[in-house]
Amino acid sequence: MKLNKILMITVLSLAYSSSAFAQGKEITPYAVTANNVTIAKPASINIDQNGITMLAPNLGEMSSKFMPVVKNYMILWSQTKDKTNQVEWAVNAPADGVYGVTASLSGKEGLLSVSCGDQKIEKKISQKGWHRIELGNISLKTGENKLLLEVNTLGVLVSALELAKPEVRTVIRKEALEARQQPDWFKDAGYGLMFQWTNRATPPKGAIKDWEQKVNDFDLEGFMKLVEDSGASYVIWSMTWGNQYISAPIKALDAIIAGRTTKRDLLGEMVDRLHKKGVKVIFYYHYGYDCYHSEDSDWLKASGGKEADKTKLYANIMKILTEAGSRYGDKLDGWWFDGGARYLNCHFDGSSAANGILTAPFKEITAAARAGNPQRMVAYNSWVKPLITDYQDYYGGEGKKTFKPTDLKEGVFTAGLQQGLQAHGCFALEKRWGHIDLDTPIGKPKFNALQLAAFVKRAKQGRYPISINLEMYEDGSVSPASYSLLEELKSATRNK
């Protein structure tokens, strides 16, 4: 088997004509911003006998045609480029034990096998698209073991193998299920509004303001009127998006890096006003490692995000979540965590697994997210991939508008990629998720009132909500065309 010790993965750069400012610096926001990743030499990986160990292909020794796919600073997954593809991991087990092996992959045919010594388990790939395959059990002995994954077909995308003792996985699932929050208000909400408004938001014309001034000038009265006129049952609001700037005096962020918070507690004013109106609030959170091609390098260096061991990064994130959750209490009803692929594989940047965590501490992050409100819902956006942890409540639903009624029971997925999670969809109404282009008006809505009403009707019947994402200008205003469309939607769907 021919193996590569160090791989340089390159993707083509894409050019777009639009431009924006991030921290006063002109960028091309829709260009591929990382065109190569250097993958560290494989290291021996410690098995967690009391948890789930994620083995991403980039952490093992890969055959020359088993190639990581790189986009926007991160390894998304690895793809088979030949009919014979292999990756081998050296894993250290603390004691003899039997581990269940699960593969997360996308492919429509072929044979997948995992071997260790004289043991071999295999299964055929027969399902199209992303899915999980339970391969069976394999025994590991105390000390170092060699685990070999083989895929005998082209075009298969592999996210990771999961190793967990069957009894441990049972305990994790039971524990997560007992803590799961899937309230009726969310099931029957119909629709809400979603906004990506942060320091990156731009006006229709002219330069953007500095962060403090932008927050001070935000038109909260106009925003509240928009929510009321739209008929939205809830709001998903970006606490951060790409860059770690928070429109509130969060001391945990100040302790990590200066100049990123504001004296005005815009978040607090917003949740207070919405809570009084009976409108629920969910905060969107992104920790700053590429989001619409924006990397917050200063924050990542300060927080530990540039280290191979991401333990410090997640500890800092949990401090921020705990403070925000405690500050807003029962007025904050949920979290929507973006970038699930990076939570799943902490070495998405090609860093070494010689030390530190392989995947984020989901149980602890979810607990921190519920500080101040134990009924608070949590979602980790898995994008096109299967759910990345049982320690969550609802599906992020990026890009989804409707779901098949046969896949749901009381709004919960009964099988498939997101089994057990509350269904939820969110989609962009206009061109972008957020308005970060300079001297450019917000584009026209992609859908008309009849189409949106049909999405909402189906959502109510299936007992799941949909979140309609609007672009928003720097001052908090939105497109007049989108505003009018939402008024039509309210008239067509509320109390009907």
CATH class of the largest domain: Alpha Beta
CATH topology of the largest domain: TIM Barrel
In which range does the helix fraction lie? 10-25%
Outline type: globular
CATH superfamily of the largest domain: Glycosidases
**Radius of gyration from the alpha-carbon trace, in angstroms:** 23 Å
Number of continuous helical runs: 12
CATH architecture of the largest domain: Alpha-Beta Barrel
Q: What is the distance, rounded to the nearest whole angstrom, between the alpha carbons of the first and last residues?
A: 64 Å
Describe this structure in words.
It contains 12 helices and 26 strands. It has 496 residues and is α/β, with parallel strands linked by helices. The chain has 2 domains: 3-171, Sandwich (Jelly Rolls); 180-493, Glycosidases (TIM Barrel), CATH 3.20.20.80. Strands 1, 6, 8, 11, 13, 14 and 16 form a 7-stranded mixed beta sheet that branches. A 7-stranded parallel beta sheet has the order 22-21-20-19-18-26-25, covered by helices on one side. Strands 7, 9, 10, 12, 15 and 17 form a 6-stranded antiparallel beta sheet that branches. A hairpin with a 2-residue loop joins strand 13 (111-116) and strand 14. Helix 8 (311-328) runs parallel beside helix 10 and helix 11 (449-462) packs across helix 12. It is globular.
Key features of this structure:
seven-stranded mixed sheet; disordered N terminus; TIM Barrel; alpha/beta; 2 domains; seven-stranded parallel sheet; 12 helices; Jelly Rolls; globular; 496 residues
In short:
The protein is an alpha/beta fold. The protein has helices at 166-179, 184-187, 211-216, 220-230, 251-254, 266-276, 297-303, 311-328, 340-344, 362-369, 449-462, 480-493, and strands at 3-4, 7-10, 20-22, 25-27, 36-39, 45-46, 53-55, 61-63, 66-71, 74-80, 85-93, 97-106, 111-116, 119-124, 130-140, 143-151, 157-164, 191-195, 234-238, 280-285, 334-337, 377-380, 408-409, 412-413, 425-428, 466-470. The radius of gyration is 23 Å and the shape is globular.
